Amino acid sequence: MTAALIMLETPMPLNLRDLQHFLAIAETGSFTEAGARRALSQPALSRAIRQLEDRLGDRLFDRDGRGARLSPAGARLMPIAVRLVREAELGLEDVSAFIKGSRGRLCVAALPSLAATLLPGPLAAFQAEYPDIDVKILDGLAMNVETAVLEGHADLGLTIRPLPDVDLAYQELQEDLFGAVRANDRQSPDTIDTWADLAQVPFIAMALRSSVRQATDQAFLQAGVFVRPLYECGHLATVGALVGRGLGVTALPQLTLRLLPEPDLSWTTLDAPITKRSVGFVIRPDRRSPTVEAMIRHLAT
After folding, report:
1. What is the DSSP code string of 139-177?
2. Per-residue pLDDT tens for 147-190?
3. Residue 233 pairs with which residues in a beta bridge?
4. pLDDT at 24 exceeding the cut of 80
5. First CA to last CA across the chain, in angstroms?
6. Which residues pair with 136 in a beta bridge?
7. CA 118/CA 28 separation, integer angstroms
8. What Gene Ontology cellular component terms go with this record (predicted)?
C-alpha cells in the first residue's frame, strides 16, 4: 500500500489521542520521551502506535538504536496529523471561549433613539472587555425589535416595555419623559405646558406605527382633545427639520432630542397627563448566554 492511500483506505476514523501520541514520538524521536510527555508507559504507547499502524495498514516509524524515525507513511501522515490536532484544539478553545462569553457573536436590535443614546457607552465598554466578540446592530421600530428577538435574529433588544402577552423578559433601564419641542426663534404661543395646549397649534406627528406616535395618541386621548397632525413623518430628523423651520410643534421623549438636526429647539415637559415611556431591554429567557449577560451588565451600569 502506498503512503498516499493510507487515509483513503482507513477502515475506521482516527481519534485525536492516537494522533497526539504519534506527534509526540515524531517530535521527540523517542518512545520513552514521548511516553513521558503523554503520561504513558512505553509499552502502552507502543501498543497504541501498533494499533494505529494496524488501522492504517503500514508502519509509521523505523526504529533503530538511535530512536524512532518517521517511515514514508509516517512522513505522509505528519502534516495531516498536525493540522487535525491543531484544528481540534482551536475548535475546543472556541467552544470554551463561547461558553465563557469571551468570543463569538452578539446581535442587538434597538429602537433608533435608543441605539443612538443608550447603546454607545455600554457597547464601548463591552467591546473593550470582549474585543473578540463580533457585534451586529439592528435598529428599527419597536415591533420589529421584539420580532427580531422572538425569532432569534437578535440576542437582545433595546425597546419600550412590551405588551404583557409578548413572550419576552423585560428589564427597565429608565423612564423617558415626553415634552413639547418647538423652535426658539419662531412665533408660537408663549407657553405650551399641557397636551391640550398642543391642540391649539400646528402639530407635527411621528408615523402611525412608531412607538412615539402610539404614546402621543394615548396622551391626547387622556387629555380629552383631538389633534389632527399637520404633517406625519417616519423619521425624527424630518420632524426636527420641520419644527426648526417653524412649521409646527411636536411632542417627543427626551432621549430622542440628540437625533434632531436643528440645534435651536426647546423642549419642555408636558403635563395633564405627565407622559413617560419605559425603556429597557428584552431577551428570550432561553437565550440568556454569558455573552448576553455581559452586555446586560454593561447596559445596567
Report:
1. E--HHHHHHHHHTTS-SEEEEEPPPTTS--EEEEEEEEE
2. 999 988 899 999 999 999 889 999 999 999 999 999 986 555 56
3. 206
4. yes
5. 66
6. 107
7. 57
8. cytosol
- Evaluate whether 295 touches 108 at the Cβ level (below 8 Å): yes
Q: What is the DSSP string of 175-213?
A: EEEEEEEEETTS---S---BHHHHTTS-BEEE-TTSHHH
Q: Provide the pairing of β-strand 265-269 with 169-183.
A: antiparallel
Domains of the chain from N-terminus onward: 3-100 (1.10.10.10), 104-172+278-300 (3.40.190.10), 174-277 (3.40.190.10)
| Predicted pLDDT at 5 | 36
**272: its cell numbers:** 395633564
Dig out the grid coordinates for 53 from the structure: 499502524
C-alpha cell recorded at residue 171: 428589564
Q: How does the average pLDDT of the chain come out, rounded? A: 87
What CA–CA distances, in Å, run from 116 to 110, 137, 165, 258?
9, 11, 28, 8
**Distance between CA 14 and CA 58 in Å, rounded?**
14
Asked if residues 205 and 233 have their Cβ atoms less than 8 Å apart, the reply is yes
Cell digits of residue 83:
493540522
Confidence of residue 9 (pLDDT cuts 50, 70, 90): very low
Digit-coded pLDDT (tens) for 248-284? 999 999 999 988 887 889 999 999 999 999 999 999 9
> Residues near 224 by Cβ (< 8 Å), separated by ≥ 6?
196
H or E stretch at 279: strand 276-283
1 vs 265: CA distance, rounded Å: 84
Q: Which residues contact 133 (CB under 8 A, 6 or more apart)?
A: 101, 102, 103, 104, 105, 106, 126, 127, 291
DSSP per-residue codes, 29-89: S-HHHHHHHHT--HHHHHHHHHHHHHHHTS--EEEETTEEEE-HHHHHHHHHHHHHHHHHH
